[in-house]
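Quick start: what a row looks like.
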Amino acid sequence: MIYLDNAATTPLDPEVFEAMKPYMLNDFGNPSSTHSHGRKTRAALESARQQIASLLNAEPGEIVFTSGGTEADNALLRGAIQVHGVQHVITSPIEHHAVSHTLEVLARQGWFKLHHVTLDEKGHINLDDLETLLKENPHAVVSLMHANNEIGNLLDIERAGELCHYYNAWFHSDTVQTVGHLRHDLSRLKVDGMTAGAHKFHGPKGVGFMFVRKKKRIEPFIHGGAQERNMRGGTENVYGVVGMAKALELAYRDMDAHARHIRALKLRMTAQLREAIPGVSFHGDSEDLKRSLYTILNVCLPECDESGQLLFNLDQQGISASGGSACSSGEPGGSHVLKALYPSCKGASVRFSFSRFNTVEDIDQAVRALEQLCCIPA
């Protein structure tokens, strides 16, 4: 079995599991309790918060634990719009549904006017258009993802942050695909809110965090308790948080080596596909290591008899990949990202996404399978 869908979720690192085990079996106290059992888990929770903040060059009070990236995106957007009395929100047509669906619902309810920044032919944000929208709609909330989860395109997050800061906009970035794979220095980066999900960097599912800059506070999204400094009600997922902090520690410790390994796998697959399958192409800039996240390659295959069953047939051969975001699988009309960029595309699209646990043999086997399924003689 070959797993090449790491943008959907990653396997849990064994070191992360070992770090979590004591808090799953023995240290079970509620971190809001004042007795010794509670104090022990509270100490673990705050140690994890300090560790994550240190890696990101943020302050511990700016890290708020959530159930994952989707909750964090919802909380940041709703909270910022509420507390800052925003009348205009700027986003793109290819955001993750945690962002786009949230904004569409609120816009329909009359909270604000929604604006979409234009994209270039490769699906990158037109930063000149962003500046025009910011000039016309000052004091807006801007939400643009750091790396697109389907095609891997990278936003120039530094430049976008500078523009938002200059025009006094509240800047949110969905960084779920990049936290743990790229370094973020939040003491310098002009982002007011960003998000992470632990299971995208070999941590556990069901836990994540949001960064909220201390001078750009938001209204809480979930009420019901004073947890997370009154920013998120509900008993914290202690062993999940401990695992997330450990996973991020390992990611930062070995990031350069992991990135070299994964980049080599992506280059290998790109080159082999070009040689093996005439007419193959790549969506967005996913084959460009300078303009896309190194963990994602979105392949456009020439139309053939097997196009409609390609993912199923790959699965039958023991290869797990996807057509796009796991969160939108099964939606009518397919990927909203590819539909926005390639409305007339008829060939099959496959997103391969890699991790440090993948091997050269995984890549070679996946390419051979695609070659056979695309009706190309071996």
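That is the whole record. The longest strand covers residues 193-197. Residues 263 and 352 are 13 Å apart (CA to CA).
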